[in-house]
Amino acid sequence: MSSLEVTIPTDREVLTRRRFSAPRGLVYRAHTEPDLIKRWLLGPPGWTMPECRFDARVGGSYFYRWAHPTEPGFALTGIITEIDPPDRIVSRENFDSQWTGGETEVTQDFIPDGDGTIVAQRILFASREAREAGMATGMTDGMAMSFDALERLLAELA
Amino acid sequence: MPEETLDLTFAALADPTRRAILARLSRGEATVTELAEPFAMSQPAISKHLKVLERAGLISRGRDAQRRPCRIEGPALAAVNGWLETYRDIWDQNYRRLDAVLADMQADGKDTTGGH
């Protein structure tokens, strides 16, 4: 199991990077085929994706709708602005709620790494405020933090 | 924490020197002189960074007019950390499920796109 790197290089961006033990062709398919996407792009436990469409071409759109037994559902629409199978997908995304505080630009690079693949994802928010609004639910105001957590945080910010 | 404070916090953390100062302060309080040493920076330059960190609520400074030792303030960092942890958790869970999906795909021998 490879660990997930999260960094925030500027105040409008979040980068994630993760290695998978699978060839790039499969990783790309898992990001572009609805039957595969709806098996993993689900967020926290309890969520499902009853509706998923993905039209993998420039100008094509995708649509994800998530549902939960007790929480109100939400959906996301994306427009693909650049696609280069199996290297790269660039798109503009909008959630139907206030989740990200406006449109985000998402770039996914699929990079061969030995017999595996690294997925590098960059999310560019409309503004710093948007990025923060996007994660307002994660706030833990006033919570004490251990030095371990602090060190990890500082490493992520680097 | 008010949102404008969080904005200041993120802006303060966007600078590598200020992150290094926080890393140093996570090991205990320090004066401006002590903080300036490892950075090959003048004390006024360090003081500017400290003002940004203080305004963002990330550090506080002692009242002793001579030394004014700096110390780290937990809640502001915890707010940023909470933001990042939520983000990290969501993608960590997604990608663990993706590991399983990819393992299934490989077991099924469906790699027809040529990999890399």
From TrEMBL, chain A:
Pfam families: AHSA1 (PF08327). This is ATPase. InterPro entries: ASHA1/2-like_C (IPR013538), START-like_dom_sf (IPR023393). The lineage of its organism: Bacteria, Pseudomonadati, Pseudomonadota, Alphaproteobacteria, Hyphomicrobiales. Gene3D superfamilies: 3.30.530.20. Residues 22-154 form the Activator of Hsp90 ATPase homologue 1/2-like C-terminal domain. It comes from the Bacteria. Belongs to the AHA1 family.
Automatic annotation (TrEMBL), chain B:
GO terms for molecular function: DNA-binding transcription factor activity. Pfam families: HTH_20. Residues 1-92 form the HTH arsR-type domain. It comes from the Bacteria. SMART domains: HTH_ARSR. PROSITE patterns: HTH_ARSR_2. PANTHER family: SLL0088 PROTEIN, TRANSCRIPTIONAL REGULATORY PROTEIN. This is ArsR family transcriptional regulator. It comes from Arsenicitalea aurantiaca. The lineage of its organism: Bacteria, Pseudomonadati, Pseudomonadota, Alphaproteobacteria, Hyphomicrobiales.
